[in-house]
Specification:
Elements lengths: L5 E4 L9 H17 L4 H19 L3 H16 L5 H15 L9 H9 L3 E7 L2 H11 L7 E5 L4 H10 L7 E5 L2 H10 L3 E4 L20 E3 L11
Parallel strand pairs: 1-2, 1-4, 2-3, 4-5, 5-6
Helix pairs in contact: 1-4, 2-3, 3-4, 7-8
Bound molecules: magnesium ion.
């Protein structure tokens, strides 16, 4: 068992699949673009650039993703979409707008067990209304003493959280799927971390991890936490 008093959980792609929904929508967009004669690689490259730019200016969430699809479309066609094409784009993102999520297998039981032994905090980034809707849909809110929705998860976010909740960094663990938002900034603020990779992780969450860092525990699934905490 690891000495821990507080466990902080990421939500998207850690407690439930999130980016998978976006990937499915993007696949449909690729199909449509292919029909219009645009090779997949070209569409992927343009979209990656557009998305990087848009998230820097507008943040995260379904609205920004939709805007990135529209901008990619306009870039490929070298014109704005027609009303019919706008409707087709809206239909593609319709399943994202509902914000319905399902906890990953074993998550409910794991959180139930861990919440009887540790203080638990949920820390998710994104648009407040969207993240709140997903948390409500998941039915997991009751396992956490504190739920925080933030615009960005960087070292300042973690340092402020330690101060705000009187946490001992050496006994606090950040658990998540994103090297960029969960693991590296938490380690920089002095917390320990548990990295649980998700194969559908968003490209903008990728980052290099230090393989020699003993304060990062790497697990195959959330349920494996029970063997350590
Ligand atoms: Mg995540």
């Amino acid at each position: 068992m690891t000495s821990a008093s507080t466990l902080i959980f990421d939500a998207d792609d850690t407690l439930w699949e999130n980016n998978l929904r976006f990937n499915q929508t993007f696949s449909a967009f690729l199909e449509w673009s292919k029909e219009a004669g645009h090779p997949e690689q070209q569409v992927r490259e343009i979209f990656a650039e557009v998305e990087r730019r848009n998230t820097q200016v507008h943040g995260y969430g379904t609205a920004v993703f939709t805007r990135s699809l529209q901008d990619t479309f306009a870039d490929l066609q070298r014109r704005s979409p027609t009303p019919t094409e706008v409707s087709r784009l809206d239909a593609l993102v319709a399943n994202l707008v509902s914000n319905t999520v399902q906890p990953l297998p074993g998550v409910i039981f794991t959180l139930q067990e861990l919440s009887s032994r540790h203080e638990m905090i949920l820390l998710t980034k994104g648009l407040h209304a969207e993240q709140k809707a997903k948390i409500e849909s998941s039915g997991l809110a009751g396992y956490f003493e504190t739920i925080m929705i933030v615009a960005e998860k960087d070292v300042k976010t973690y340092s402020a959280l330690l101060v705000q909740h009187w946490l001992d960094a050496s006994k606090t663990w950040m658990i998540g799927n994103s090297p960029k938002s969960d693991i590296n900034p938490a380690r920089a603020a002095g917390l320990n971390a548990v990295y649980i990779p998700n194969p559908h992780t968003w490209a903008l969450e990728h980052d290099v991890l230090d393989p020699t860092d003993d304060n990062v525990l790497c697990l195959g699934s959330l349920t494996e936490l029970l063997a350590h905490f």
